[in-house]
Amino acid sequence: MFTGFLCMVFSSLIDNELSWDTSDWESAWDGGDNKEGESTDNNKTGQSTSKDPWLQDCVVSLSPCSDLLVVAREHRAAFLSAKWRTDDSGREEMTLAVSWSGTLSSEEGECVSSAICIPLASQKRSSTGRPDWTCVVVGFTSGYVRFYTESGVLLLAQLLHEDPVLRLKCRTYEIPRHPGVTEQHEELSILYPGAMVTIDGFSLFQSLRACRNQVARAAAAGSDVIQPPPLAYKKWGLQDMDTIVDHSSVGIMTLCVFDQMKNASILGGFSASVKGSPPAMSQYVTVGAGPYMGFYYAVEGSSQPLLSHVALAVASKLTSALFSAASGWLGWNKNKTEEEAVQKQKPKVEPATPLGIRFGLPDSRRHGESICLSPCNTLAGVTDDFGRVTLLDLARGIAIRMWKGYRDAQLGWLQIPEERGDREFSPSASLPRRHALFLVIYAPRRGILEVWAMQQGPRVGAFTVGKHCRLLYAGYRLMGVNSVTSQGWQLHTQQVCLMDPSTGVLRTVNVPFHLALSDKKSEQAKDMHLVKRLTTLLKSRDVESILLDIKHPAIKKQALESLLSNKNAPVSCLTNITCALHDTLKQKDPEEVDIALLQLCSSQLKLLQLYTDIHQLHSAADVEASTENTESGVRAGHESRLRTCSCLSFAGNFLFWGCLCGKSPRHKVCDTLQQAGISPQQLLSLLLSVWLQREKEVLQKPVESVRNLHTLLVALSNMKGAVEESWDPQSISPWWQQVRCTCIQSHNAAAALLAALVAHRAAKASITSRADSKLQSEWEAVSLELEQWVVCVRQLEDVLVLQTLLLVPPLQGAAGGATVQCSIKTLLEGGTGGIADSVSKWVFRQSMAPERLKEILQKRENTDGDYKQHKEEEEGNEEKDQKDPDRTAVCQRFPHSLSPDLLFAHCCWEYVVQWNKDPEEGRYLCWAVEHLKLISSPHIQLGISTMMWSTFIVKRFSAAAFLMEKDVGIGDKAMTSFLGCCVQLLQVLMEADSAVEEVSAPELSVEEAWCGAEGPASIAELALDQRGVHFPLVQHHCLLASLLHAAMTFSLRVKPLSLFDSKGKNAFFRDLTTIQLMPSGDMDPGLVSLRQEFLLRVLTGWVEAIDDFSSSASGSPTLPSTGPRADWWPSMCLELGSLLQVNPDILRRHLVCELYNQGLDLRAEEVMLEVEDKDVLGSQLLVLTGQRLSYSLLHSQSQTQAAMELLARLPPTLCTWLKAMDPSELRCPLVPLPQTSRLVGRLIEMLPEKHAQYSLALHLLEAIEALTTED
């Protein structure tokens, strides 16, 4: 039931807040008695009808960040992690879902007795206060304390005391709010029946990080075990108290001189000596019985911390388990025998340091049940078996307040900082920020949650909740934070939460700060209450009197804004309320009136009047049917958006869309807007925003829309304040510059181009009329202003063409991705390479092959050479396939920005960037190299190759060289492709470096209209700025890449770095622009032998690969250009042999023998022509021929009588030699006899007559000819 209930219940909201029960405040202000009212409908979660309150039997812990919940019972537990989900209404909500469940206990009979979730702070500089991960600490009845990750992975376990763990509590760093406050250290405290252990927080943080890192390493690559730092802890034996059930570690405190002398006198008597400075002490408070509460003080330095060696929970590939003889151990991936052996040996448990009680609160009949420490470490709440809640002053050691009638109560604390708005009304505004402290008490017997102000404050809130809920209060925040790392952090933690098992809802409790300022008749609290009443009464009654009753101007302003943003309030009602408030403010003394509130009333009155006037014009023209009903939701939505001015698009639609459609009187609307006092610049912004955002509707009727836009634009230009009368014709007009800026920033290129053309014409007419009125010709003004429009229109035309290309949807199966939105502004900010970068991203989305892009660019060049000749062909192609856009049009608009070399460079970089995001897509890197090869300028080619190598390639390449595939993050297939691309990249790099001196560097340019680009340099410009490379070092890396590629292609087990001496190894993975000490002279013969063996294995692998290809294909097939069957592998091995000081003739002879061994005689004869040492090759082939003949005569399954007779006629020497041959070494023993006869003929030609085996070759020839004749 437990696990099933978790799955059902805890997919719950985490951010629901409890609403305040304010009925008692209302009755107090209305003159009635203070009665405990019921909560609002929103917080009624319902009484649990379950007869089995299972949650009370569970150990529950919630992380202070509310992202992990642990529920445990007996030996099982479930971890619930926070996840986002979308509900049925489309609203995203945070839920807690089971992420891990299972058994936690390791020893027989032990159960979970306590648990806490400790979020650990991230050590990254970019962290803003979110935890890096959360550690789950679980205490058991066996005395063990075990530490787990969020996914249930055991990190470490400690046995510090052989009694059941009663409570686990944590204290984390808090920024001191006042100078002189002692800075508290982080610690984890563990309570046992007779002892208490405190683990230093810094030591625990480092050990947990080390254990978690070791888990990650072992899971990834099985690296060696690294011993983490030991845990530093102190163990105290709490004496003079009969029973202890709970505790609180208050922290380090320093007594004043008087208290120091008082304590010395009490403890040491009259003659006691007093130290010069008060000692620092750690204070611990316990609750239980005999006495009811106990106070313990441990002087710092009185006990040295113990070191508990941490045993890792990870077994590496080399070690199956690691055990520590000190205080703790763990096992992971152990077999059953090992586990039993570990359980039998108990670790050493250090004895506790005795700590006597300083004093206590004796009450023989009262038994304490729990203690809850306040965030400020000065107060604590204690519950007992008499149903009392006691407030304890920890500094004085006395009880200062007691509540009765709270049996089985659960406690929590809220520390609320002062809000900025509250700070304005505070008489101590110049002092540090204040904090209010509240005690939260949950009484399950009564089903009520109460909030009390401290220390002697009233109850400020009460909520009716279920009787089986659980109050969750952590009392700590993130571990691993200090005064340096916490600077600028926003700690996202919840203080008190209430979990209701009947509904599965987790609620947070928040209290306004002002509730702690004074009693219930506080004016500010009353004003806040009136604001809430105002909100609830908006739909049903007049709210004018309530608004006028509010005293504080800031709260009155908040209430007015709430009214104006309400959708359901009629315009007439809003006008009357605002007018009444405005008149009231006018009647007051000017010195007592809040200027901001008065200005808000005035501006809102004007806006309401404007809405009324414009609405009447639209209604008269019958623009929208929905505007006929002023109470409709659509109208109200327009009102709300217009009044708040939160969205220009809705305001622009309301004011100008009817005019643009030709359904509203344009001139009357403009006159009304001018009379409202709105600046022409704001109206122009609204007009352009609605024009640009409704591009599709505009393009449906472009002629009519453009005509209406021209009319509105001219009307706005003629308004007072639009174009200044004193405008200097030799300067740019700010009015028209605003239009240009809006068009430049717009992503809707078509609408922006139409707006620019309309504005260009209007500006030209305006300038001409001004010149005519002055009876003179302003040539400079005309050319200066209109030149800006010419450039803007040209840029918008270019952007429209480019955007048309970018909006072409990708083909089915292409990479796809988000469409790049472009505008003049984004292209200019993208620098000189912004245009090419946009096109390169489109090329990637289309999955366009490099050769296809090359064809398009060549078509552009042909079109530029003879435009008329190819125009008809292009039109014919468009008619054949209208879906394929004319990509050459973009290249024609940007002849410089999209030059072939620049575009290939950006495409190359885009593909390598995408490959770096997903290294398994080897195709991306291959196409990046192909784009690189198409660059014609060796200078650009060299620079991009160098940047690719240093930025993306060398790190993974070095990892591959050390055979660390798991760290490379690439599979075998992708790794082979990656290494092949590395070889090609380095070859391109060497070729470009050789050709740089022969060709001058290209001069990059941009189109005249785009000369104002400001932004990052293009990839080509960065490439030209790169330093030259050291050719021998590049060749050295290319050699290694070729060896690695061969090893991966043919699955050869070899350590490539072992094929190089110390100088060669040290030169690898260095900057290619530096000069390194390279290997020189003759190599060690042993090293040369290893190299030769590797190359021979590569040739053997290639022969075996092409044999499979030849057998599957008919005839004499042509070998492919890539893969293990590529025809260039033999030539590459010979080239590598010359670089590795391996005799190439040995490689050729081996290749000939392997080809004959595979039965590929024709290919072997081609290679045989290049062999220099024919004698050695002849001897090798003689053995191979003997093996073939031996198979035919002695080992074939179908031996003929003729073959047996021939064997009897052979010379004894030849017969003995044939019997000694082993045909099993042949991979293809069954070869046609004519081929073998041809091979023997070649042997006789190669071997000289004086050769020792020449006669044997003749006998072989005679035997094969006789056997052929018999067949």
TrEMBL record:
Keywords, alphabetical: Cytoplasm, GTPase activation, Signal
Write out the biased-composition intervals (Polar residues): 40-50
Identify the stretch annotated as signal peptide in this record.
1-19
Q: Which named protein is this?
A: RAB3 GTPase activating protein subunit 2 (non-catalytic)
Q: Which residues form the Rab3-GAP regulatory subunit N-terminal domain?
A: 54-472
* Family label: Belongs to the Rab3-GAP regulatory subunit family.
Entry's Pfam families?
A: RAB3GAP2_C, RAB3GAP2_N
**Key word Signal present:** yes
Domain Rab3GAP regulatory subunit C-terminal: from-to ranges: 682-1248
List every stretch annotated Disordered.
25-50, 859-886
Q: Where in the cell does this protein reside?
A: Cytoplasm
GO MF annotations, alphabetized = GTPase activator activity
Which gene does this sequence derive from?
A: RAB3GAP2
Q: GO CC: one term?
A: cytoplasm
